Structures are given as structure tokens and as C-alpha cells.
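Take just one protein record:
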Amino acid sequence: MSDSEVASKEALAAAPKIWRHIVQANPAAAVAFVNRAPAQHAGEAVFANRSDGKVDVYYFL
């Protein structure tokens, strides 16, 4: 691994995580979204059903 690759990984690890929000079309799409790389860990995603059938997804990245 080159020095620049190591520095890049260290910078990503040091970057603060923040909560983000996205609306998905349905529960299956919401689950697929949080399982994409990098997959969320326990406590890093919250789902809320909307009255229009869509799903609010709050995730930590």
C-alpha cells in the first residue's frame, strides 16, 4: 500500500460522521440502501414510515 493510500484511509477514518436523510420508495428499497457499501452498523440507521407509503431513512455516515 502506498503512502498516499495510507494517508487517504487515515483521513477517512478521522473524518467526523454525521446524520444524513434520504427518502426511499418502500421498505425494501430502504433496507437495500442501508446495506450498500459501506453498510450501516447497529444504531447507525433509523427508518420512519410516511403517510404516502415511502420511507424516511436517517443514516450515519
In short: DSSP finds two helices and three strands in the chain. Residues 3-14 form the longest helix (12 residues).
